[in-house]
Design brief:
Keywords: NADP, Oxidoreductase. The protein contains nine helices and 15 strands. It has 328 residues and is an alpha/beta fold. The chain has two domains: 2-123 and 269-327, Medium-chain alcohol dehydrogenases, catalytic domain (Quinone Oxidoreductase, Chain A, domain 1); 127-264, Rossmann fold, CATH 3.40.50.720. Strands 3, 4, 5, 6, 7, 14 and 15 form a seven-stranded mixed β-sheet that branches. The chain has a six-stranded parallel β-sheet with strand order 10-9-8-11-12-13, sandwiched between helices. A two-stranded antiparallel sheet has the order 1-2. Helix 3 links the parallel strand 8 (145-148) and strand 9. Helix 2 packs across helix 3 and helix 2 packs across helix 8. It is globular, with a radius of gyration of 19 Å.
Length: 328
């Protein structure tokens, strides 16, 4: 098999240190599925791992890549529901930057109706992250006001669509008029250019003073105080990223007055059983949204696997809308 090797995986490295390498083909063990990779999603977590800030869970592959699409090559003992030749996509613990990967069967999804096989690689990580945090943690319901930070990102672009499909009113943040327009096209009722506007004032104005029932935040510390200000009484701030800092000052008085809550979650470090439950929920609830056109993968570009370094540089530039894919 061919895969992308990070030449010094335990130390900070630049994109130039990503290079193609080879290893023996893999064989699935009990409960595993071997997938021939059609495409792999590129996520900010990959950039963090490359820089030495986001190590994979114990026992996971050191190879970058948290989601793929492709075709089942073989299944291990005890696997039901998938057979060789099936078109699938999958949520990974690691190993996606390769032309084949072994995945626990509970983290494999059938190709959703109407989606190109390569484009499906843009779905597993974003769909599982958006669904689990909007619904399981944020308890988004019909009529709720939801702020989605980073609406132009891989998770944000899908979170806008899922929240809209659930009947929520979405206020998204993005950088610049063009990206704002694309967020509106995905279903956001209000889009705030974070470079020049206040999302706190925007959500309060749009909601008639109610505020945000849920804030889905990838920014982290830099937005902590404003996020709390934006919350409605009983609102939920769900932090899923730290793009602009990991330490901030929390006004407990404001939080208590609003009877609000702050939750922080990650997906990769969860036990296999929890991941399988999230994947099953996505298959049950999000896949029908894709089949009927309410949700679609948002793909910025597809690059050959051996241009992984270029993909990382492009994602780091802030120019990407949606997901970048690597194609073996």
């Amino acid at each position: 098999m061919r895969y992308i090797e990070c030449s010094t995986p335990d130390e900070p490295t630049g994109p130039a240190n990503l290079a193609v390498s080879t290893a023996p083909d893999q064989t699935p063990s009990a409960g595993e599925v071997l997938v021939s990779v059609a495409a792999a999603g590129v996520n900010r977590a990959d950039l963090m791992q490359r820089a030495g800030h986001y190590p994979p869970p114990p026992g996971a592959s050191q190879v970058l890549g948290l989601e793929v699409s492709g075709t089942v090559l073989a299944t291990g003992p005890g696997v039901e529901g998938f057979v060789a030749g099936d078109a699938v996509c999958a949520l990974l613990d690691g190993g996606g930057y390769a032309d084949q990967v072994v995945v626990p069967a509970g983290q494999v999804l059938p190709l959703p109706a109407g989606v190109d096989l390569a484009a499906a690689a843009a779905l597993p990580e974003a769909a599982c992250t958006a669904w689990s945090n909007l619904v399981d943690v944020g308890r988004v319901s019909d009529g709720a006001w939801v702020v989605v930070h980073g609406g132009s990102g891989g998770v944000g672009s899908l979170a806008i669509q899922i929240a809209t499909a659930l009947g929520a009113h979405v206020v998204a943040t993005a950088g610049g008029p063009e990206r704002a327009d694309r967020c509106r096209a995905l279903g956001a009722e209000v889009v705030v250019d974070h470079r020049t506007e206040s999302f706190v004032e925007a959500v309060r104005a749009a909601s008639g003073g109610h505020g945000a029932d849920v804030v889905l935040d990838v920014v982290g510390a830099a937005y902590l105080a404003e996020n709390v200000r934006a919350l409605a009484t009983g609102g939920r701030l769900v932090v899923i990223g730290m793009q602009k800092g990991r330490r901030g000052e929390l006004d407990l008085g404001a939080l208590l007055t609003k009877r609000a809550s702050v939750a922080g979650t990650t997906l990769r470090a969860r036990p296999a059983a929890e991941k399988a439950a999230i994947v099953a929920a996505v298959r049950e609830h999000v896949w029908p949204m894709i089949a009927d056109g309410r949700v679609r993968p948002v793909v910025h570009a597809q690059l050959p696997l051996d241009r992984a370094a270029q993909a990382h540089a492009l994602l780091d530039s802030g120019e990407v809308f949606g997901k970048l894919l690597l194609v073996p």
